[in-house]
Amino acid sequence: MPISGAKIPTAIPTYPHPTVGKWRFFEINNLCKNRAFKSRQSNGIAKLKLKRSINHPTFVASASNVSISDTSFPTDYPDLLRQAKEATESAMQDNIQLMEIEFPTSGLDSVPGDGEGGIEMTGSMQLIREFCDRLIAPEKATRTRIFFPEANEVTFARTSVFEGVALKLDYLTKPSFFEDFGFGTKVKMADRVQPEDELFLVAYPYFNVNEMLVVEELYKEAVANTSRKLIVFNGELDRIRSGYYPSFFYPKLAALTKTLFPKMETVYYIHNFKGRNGGTLFRCYPGPWQVLRRAGKKYICVHQRETMPSLKEVALDILRPV
Fold first, then answer.
1. What pLDDT is recorded for position 32?
2. What is the pLDDT of residues 38-70, one digit of tens each?
3. 36 to each of 170, 240, 302, how far by Cα in Å?
4. CB of 273 closer than 8 Å to CB of 315
5. How far is the C-alpha of 18 from the C-alpha of 125, rounded, in Å?
6. Between these two residues, 200 and 55, which has the higher pLDDT value?
7. Are residues 122 and 48 in contact, defined by beta-carbon separation less than 8 angstroms?
8. CB 80 within 8 A of CB 103
9. Which residues pair with 269 in a beta bridge?
10. Is residue 12 a contact partner of residue 274, using CB atoms and an 8 Å limit?
11. What per-residue confidence (pLDDT) applies to 252?
12. Which of the residues 236, 264, 300, 319 has an alpha carbon 20 to 30 A from that of 254?
């Protein structure tokens, strides 16, 4: 029986999502409408403005028992992409093959749902392009393959954000008649990969539950026991980690936490928590995991460890007031 008038302040765990370089414009067209791009398109085309985040807090430490890494919380998206690129390079030098990059794209302090689904995915596409511009040397571009969730998005990318690039653009699934029910046509990954491919980047594979299963297939068939590398970019893997998809209904998806995820290194990560006692879970490889609390225009590190804490632990234990 609830106690009348009782109020327990707590942080609210959320699941990540996608603003970018300086006032760039591009168009979302009808080729992408079969996915979350269905949201609020006007006359078949919607203008999208992606703005640089400004006035983000700086990073300081307050607890005397907390050792702080050299990496501070990013001030804007160019700073974030620089950090993510350096973290990825460090992981590659350490021979890590399977990597995760995850951060919100609707603002550095945003949470999933702050932006519309289609706009957030398109924001991720723009950020992936800028990330690749920083990470991949021109002579390596033709040996880098970017997998988008569907063939339609490859068409859109080639005529907008990725127009004229030497990068190889590919897809995980084909649209089908049953797409609105969560089904797509499976693409055999062994047929998509070419011998000269060295790096795979998978873009936001979270809209359809089958997409991460295809990523696992890609890893097993084309990355494991080779010198290749694979990056999952804004895949919202926390949904799978947290049990958002019940294992009874999605046993193969739930199994990823025991098969694929233990092989994965999260090289760059930002997850924000809203609420009265909100904060941020932050990691930049090879640094530790840090829980940051915002204090005015600064961030205070209140907890640090080598392994990733669960979002539930951060929200209910670490960020909860004593």
1. 42
2. 333 333 323 333 333 334 444 444 443 444 556
3. 19, 19, 36
4. yes
5. 9
6. 200
7. yes
8. yes
9. 102, 283
10. yes
11. 94
12. 319
